[in-house]
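note to self: dont lose this again. the chain is below, predicted strucutre after it. 218 aa total, dont forget to put it in the shared folder this time
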Amino acid sequence: MPIRLEVWGDYALFSRPEMKTERVTYDVMTPSAARGILEAIFWHPGLCWRIDRIYVLNPIRFDSIRRNEVDSVINVSKIKSMAEGKGDGGAIYTSESIQQRSATVLRNVRYVIDAHFTIDCRKAAPEDSAEKFQSMFMRRAAKGQYFHHPYFGTREFPADFQLWKKNEDPIGFEQGHRDLGYMFFDFDYRNPASPKPLFFRAALNDGVLDVASAEVKS
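---
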Protein backbone atom coordinates (compact mmCIF):
# COMPACT_ATOMS: atom_id res chain seq x y z
CA MET A 1 0.00 0.00 0.00
CA PRO A 2 1.77 3.18 -1.18
CA ILE A 3 2.77 6.05 1.09
CA ARG A 4 3.79 9.48 -0.20
CA LEU A 5 5.33 11.92 2.30
CA GLU A 6 6.78 15.39 1.70
CA VAL A 7 9.73 16.35 3.94
CA TRP A 8 11.80 19.52 4.12
CA GLY A 9 14.32 21.34 6.27
CA ASP A 10 17.01 24.02 6.42
CA TYR A 11 19.99 21.64 6.47
CA ALA A 12 20.81 17.97 5.95
CA LEU A 13 23.86 15.78 6.41
CA PHE A 14 23.81 12.29 4.89
CA SER A 15 27.39 11.32 5.70
CA ARG A 16 29.55 9.47 3.23
CA PRO A 17 31.15 6.52 5.09
CA GLU A 18 34.40 6.82 3.12
CA MET A 19 35.05 10.23 4.71
CA LYS A 20 36.60 9.58 8.11
CA THR A 21 37.45 12.84 9.88
CA GLU A 22 35.45 15.51 8.07
CA ARG A 23 31.74 15.01 7.46
CA VAL A 24 30.76 15.20 3.78
CA THR A 25 27.16 14.67 2.70
CA TYR A 26 25.79 12.75 -0.24
CA ASP A 27 24.08 14.88 -2.89
CA VAL A 28 20.62 13.61 -1.92
CA MET A 29 18.90 11.78 0.91
CA THR A 30 19.82 8.11 1.24
CA PRO A 31 17.18 5.34 1.34
CA SER A 32 18.13 4.51 4.94
CA ALA A 33 17.58 8.14 5.99
CA ALA A 34 14.17 8.08 4.28
CA ARG A 35 13.31 4.89 6.13
CA GLY A 36 14.39 6.52 9.39
CA ILE A 37 11.97 9.39 8.84
CA LEU A 38 9.06 7.01 8.25
CA GLU A 39 9.97 4.94 11.32
CA ALA A 40 10.11 8.12 13.41
CA ILE A 41 6.47 8.73 12.52
CA PHE A 42 5.25 5.15 12.83
CA TRP A 43 7.21 2.07 13.83
CA HIS A 44 5.98 -1.43 14.60
CA PRO A 45 8.03 -4.64 14.98
CA GLY A 46 5.79 -6.38 12.46
CA LEU A 47 6.19 -3.68 9.80
CA CYS A 48 9.10 -3.22 7.36
CA TRP A 49 9.39 0.01 5.36
CA ARG A 50 10.52 -0.21 1.71
CA ILE A 51 11.59 2.95 -0.11
CA ASP A 52 10.55 3.07 -3.78
CA ARG A 53 11.49 6.56 -4.98
CA ILE A 54 12.84 9.83 -3.64
CA TYR A 55 11.81 12.99 -5.49
CA VAL A 56 14.30 15.85 -5.13
CA LEU A 57 12.23 19.04 -5.32
CA ASN A 58 14.83 21.71 -4.50
CA PRO A 59 18.14 22.32 -6.29
CA ILE A 60 21.14 20.62 -4.69
CA ARG A 61 23.13 23.25 -2.77
CA PHE A 62 26.00 22.77 -0.33
CA ASP A 63 27.27 24.73 2.67
CA SER A 64 30.42 24.37 4.76
CA ILE A 65 29.96 24.67 8.50
CA ARG A 66 31.91 23.88 11.65
CA ARG A 67 30.39 21.56 14.25
CA ASN A 68 31.37 20.52 17.77
CA GLU A 69 31.89 16.76 18.04
CA VAL A 70 33.23 14.47 20.73
CA ASP A 71 35.95 11.88 20.22
CA SER A 72 34.79 9.46 22.92
CA VAL A 73 31.65 7.65 24.04
CA ILE A 74 29.74 8.36 27.23
CA ASN A 75 31.01 6.53 30.30
CA VAL A 76 28.02 4.34 31.22
CA SER A 77 29.14 3.77 34.80
CA LYS A 78 29.42 7.52 35.38
CA ILE A 79 25.91 8.10 34.02
CA LYS A 80 24.56 5.33 36.24
CA SER A 81 26.27 6.80 39.31
CA MET A 82 24.88 10.25 38.56
CA ALA A 83 21.37 8.81 38.11
CA GLU A 84 21.68 7.14 41.52
CA GLY A 85 22.87 10.39 43.13
CA LYS A 86 26.38 9.08 43.67
CA GLY A 87 28.19 11.05 41.01
CA ASP A 88 30.22 14.19 41.47
CA GLY A 89 27.92 16.20 39.22
CA GLY A 90 30.74 16.92 36.80
CA ALA A 91 30.50 17.19 33.05
CA ILE A 92 29.89 14.05 31.04
CA TYR A 93 32.52 15.13 28.53
CA THR A 94 35.70 17.04 29.25
CA SER A 95 36.81 20.00 27.17
CA GLU A 96 39.62 17.86 25.76
CA SER A 97 37.13 15.39 24.25
CA ILE A 98 35.24 18.09 22.32
CA GLN A 99 36.64 18.86 18.90
CA GLN A 100 35.51 21.31 16.24
CA ARG A 101 35.35 19.84 12.76
CA SER A 102 34.19 21.14 9.41
CA ALA A 103 31.29 19.54 7.57
CA THR A 104 29.88 19.85 4.07
CA VAL A 105 26.08 19.83 4.36
CA LEU A 106 23.05 20.36 2.16
CA ARG A 107 20.88 23.41 2.66
CA ASN A 108 17.24 24.16 1.94
CA VAL A 109 16.27 20.57 1.12
CA ARG A 110 12.84 19.30 0.12
CA TYR A 111 11.96 15.74 -0.89
CA VAL A 112 8.96 13.54 -1.48
CA ILE A 113 9.34 9.94 -0.30
CA ASP A 114 7.45 7.21 -2.13
CA ALA A 115 7.36 4.06 -0.02
CA HIS A 116 5.36 1.01 0.92
CA PHE A 117 5.59 -1.52 3.74
CA THR A 118 5.52 -5.25 4.16
CA ILE A 119 4.30 -7.20 7.17
CA ASP A 120 6.53 -9.61 9.05
CA CYS A 121 4.08 -12.31 10.09
CA ARG A 122 6.54 -13.62 12.69
CA LYS A 123 6.40 -10.34 14.64
CA ALA A 124 2.94 -9.01 13.81
CA ALA A 125 -0.03 -9.83 16.04
CA PRO A 126 -2.95 -11.85 14.62
CA GLU A 127 -5.14 -8.75 14.60
CA ASP A 128 -2.58 -6.66 12.67
CA SER A 129 -3.29 -5.97 9.00
CA ALA A 130 -2.04 -3.77 6.17
CA GLU A 131 -5.20 -1.65 6.39
CA LYS A 132 -4.64 -1.09 10.12
CA PHE A 133 -1.01 -0.03 9.69
CA GLN A 134 -1.88 2.19 6.72
CA SER A 135 -4.60 3.95 8.66
CA MET A 136 -2.35 4.47 11.71
CA PHE A 137 0.46 5.98 9.66
CA MET A 138 -1.82 8.27 7.66
CA ARG A 139 -3.51 9.52 10.83
CA ARG A 140 -0.23 10.19 12.63
CA ALA A 141 1.35 11.91 9.62
CA ALA A 142 -1.73 14.09 9.06
CA LYS A 143 -1.61 15.24 12.71
CA GLY A 144 2.16 15.78 12.74
CA GLN A 145 2.71 13.06 15.35
CA TYR A 146 5.94 11.11 15.76
CA PHE A 147 7.77 8.87 18.24
CA HIS A 148 10.87 11.05 17.97
CA HIS A 149 11.37 14.10 15.80
CA PRO A 150 12.45 13.07 12.27
CA TYR A 151 15.82 14.38 11.13
CA PHE A 152 17.98 14.60 8.03
CA GLY A 153 20.94 12.37 8.77
CA THR A 154 21.81 13.89 12.14
CA ARG A 155 19.55 14.99 14.99
CA GLU A 156 20.69 18.62 14.86
CA PHE A 157 19.00 18.95 11.44
CA PRO A 158 15.27 18.32 12.08
CA ALA A 159 12.86 17.48 9.27
CA ASP A 160 9.33 18.84 8.88
CA PHE A 161 6.81 16.65 7.10
CA GLN A 162 3.31 16.40 5.72
CA LEU A 163 1.39 14.01 3.53
CA TRP A 164 1.67 14.80 -0.18
CA LYS A 165 -1.69 16.42 -0.87
CA LYS A 166 -1.56 16.90 -4.63
CA ASN A 167 -3.11 14.41 -7.05
CA GLU A 168 -0.28 14.62 -9.57
CA ASP A 169 3.22 13.20 -9.17
CA PRO A 170 5.93 15.47 -7.72
CA ILE A 171 8.24 17.18 -10.22
CA GLY A 172 11.98 16.96 -9.71
CA PHE A 173 14.10 20.11 -9.67
CA GLU A 174 15.90 19.27 -12.93
CA GLN A 175 15.49 17.34 -16.14
CA GLY A 176 17.93 14.82 -17.49
CA HIS A 177 20.35 12.30 -15.98
CA ARG A 178 22.75 12.92 -13.09
CA ASP A 179 25.10 10.15 -11.94
CA LEU A 180 25.58 10.21 -8.16
CA GLY A 181 28.07 7.35 -7.91
CA TYR A 182 27.85 4.65 -5.27
CA MET A 183 25.55 5.48 -2.36
CA PHE A 184 24.83 3.82 0.94
CA PHE A 185 21.56 1.89 0.73
CA ASP A 186 21.01 0.39 4.18
CA PHE A 187 22.26 -2.29 6.52
CA ASP A 188 21.60 -6.00 6.08
CA TYR A 189 20.35 -7.08 9.51
CA ARG A 190 19.95 -10.78 8.79
CA ASN A 191 22.88 -11.29 11.14
CA PRO A 192 22.07 -8.82 13.97
CA ALA A 193 25.46 -9.36 15.59
CA SER A 194 27.28 -8.16 12.47
CA PRO A 195 25.09 -6.10 10.10
CA LYS A 196 26.56 -5.55 6.64
CA PRO A 197 26.43 -2.19 4.83
CA LEU A 198 24.78 -2.30 1.41
CA PHE A 199 25.45 0.09 -1.49
CA PHE A 200 23.98 0.81 -4.92
CA ARG A 201 24.83 2.90 -7.99
CA ALA A 202 22.63 5.96 -7.59
CA ALA A 203 21.41 8.33 -10.28
CA LEU A 204 18.82 11.06 -10.62
CA ASN A 205 16.57 10.87 -13.66
CA ASP A 206 14.53 14.05 -14.01
CA GLY A 207 15.18 14.73 -10.35
CA VAL A 208 13.99 11.31 -9.15
CA LEU A 209 16.08 8.68 -7.35
CA ASP A 210 14.66 5.27 -8.28
CA VAL A 211 15.35 3.01 -5.33
CA ALA A 212 12.97 0.16 -6.16
CA SER A 213 15.02 -0.94 -9.17
CA ALA A 214 18.43 -0.45 -7.54
CA GLU A 215 20.99 -3.25 -7.77
CA VAL A 216 22.17 -3.54 -4.18
CA LYS A 217 25.64 -4.86 -3.39
CA SER A 218 27.51 -5.45 -0.14
